[in-house]
Amino acid sequence: MDTLTLTKGVPDFREGQVSFDEDGHLERGETPTVMNPNDRFALQAALQTKVRHGGRTSVMSMGPPGYKEVLGEAMESVYADDLYLLSDREMAAADTWATSITLGTAIEKLGLPDLIFAGFKTADGETGHTGLQTCWCLDIPIITHVVALDIEPEKGRVRAKRLVEGDVEEIETVEAPMPAMIVADPEFEPSYRTAGERLTLKDLRAKTSKRGEKYEEYLTVWDHEALNLDPDYIGLDGSPTIVESVDPIPKAPAERDATMVDPGDPDGLEDVLEEMEPFRAELAAGGD
């Protein structure tokens, strides 16, 4: 049972982590990159598949060289065997369509796995297009909003429970032949039913913790030439999407007021000491 999980690095949108320029535009170079949160559910589904059915597990991402750290994190999350990064300047600034063409080509080069796992949208683009379009490029079935998964490898079939229109109150069961793509919903919860599965999970964790320390040894980087891709059909040049305008993300209001004190201002520091005095007295009296 061979699986591939698609993941992506996104800006860390937590308060205090995002950097904007004077016009309110996101400065990616000054904002830390983290794994797309929704991809974690795809990794959980892939890990459950590996524990139950064995086989080779791979993770793939497209982006700048810094995304290799996201792949390293993914390796430890899903206990992956190998990692693939699609990266060069020709791929930069791609919309979801150009990204899907690049991913689809890379997957064909790698060899179509039994199952491809993806998150249902990214935290930066929020379109939910890439997994669907990549699936279209590969011409394989897709099941979206998956919350539970069962696989019958000997029959080449996957059965999944999925939310209907994202409604947690309405669930349907669907089947599809493999190879297929599974888009995991945030409601997905992995299930390890037997003691054997739980022991397998423990063994995989131990093995991968060592591999994760040297994840770059398991990383393959492909540029557009390695994938035999025409630069006119990828990256910015191959992206039909036209962004008319961008609204800056408003900064969250501060949860509490702050008073700025100049360390060289004796009067200001005296005010600080006065504010702290009640707490000092409480600690001296044995308070918490």
Features:
288 residues; alpha/beta; Rossmann fold; 2 domains; nine-stranded mixed sheet; two-stranded antiparallel ribbon; 6 helices; 31% helix
What does this molecule look like?
There is one protein chain. With 288 residues, the chain is of the alpha/beta class. The protein has 2 domains: 231 residues, Rossmann fold; 31 residues, no CATH class. It is built from 6 helices and 11 strands. The strands form 2 sheets. Strands 9-8-7-10-6-1-4-5-11 form a 9-stranded mixed sheet, sandwiched between helices. It has a two-stranded antiparallel sheet with strand order 2-3. α2 runs antiparallel to α5. The longest helix has 19 residues. The relative contact order is 0.16.
What would you give as the CATH superfamily of the largest domain?
HUPs
Q: Give the domain tally.
A: 2
Mean pLDDT: 85
Coarse morphology = globular
Radius of gyration: 23 Å
Number of strands: 11
**Order of secondary-structure elements:** EEEHEHEHEHEEEEHEH
Largest sheet: 9 strands, mixed
Q: What ranges have pLDDT less than 50 throughout 5 or more consecutive residues?
A: none
Structural class, judged by helices and strands?
alpha/beta
How many alpha or pi helices?
Answer: 6
Indicate the CATH topology of the largest domain.
Rossmann fold
